[in-house]
Amino acid sequence: MQELLLFSRQGCCLCEGLEEKLKALDPPQPLQVIDVDTDPALQGRYGLAVPVLAVAAGADGPLRELPRVSPRLAGAQLQAWLIKQGVR
To answer: Coiled-coil intervals in this record (predicted)?
Structure first.
């Protein structure tokens, strides 16, 4: 399975909600949560646009940012959305 990267920040309710929903998937999708406030470059790139979900295009390939996830998606609907985005 591809690892998902969740660009997030502390205290962001949308970020925390998406993280919880992703961790609750069955089977769980590998997930790495990255706090954008720990890196000035990430903070400059994402600003207040978090949460941003991305996958690596290949082993050493660039990141592919996914479209914004609706906060209403959870469970099977979120899994179907990920499949539609090409995340396996």
So the answer is: none
Nearest to residue 6, comparing CAs of 85, 61, 68, 74? 68
18 Cβ neighbours under 8 A, 6+ residues apart:
6, 8, 51, 53, 69, 71
What's the predicted TM-score (pTM) here? Answer: 0.91
Which alpha helices (DSSP H) does the chain contain, by range? 13-23, 40-46, 75-84
Axis crossing angle, helix 75-84 with helix 13-23, rounded to the nearest 10: 90
Chain-wide mean pLDDT for the chain?
92
- Work out the widest C-alpha separation in the chain, in whole angstroms: 35
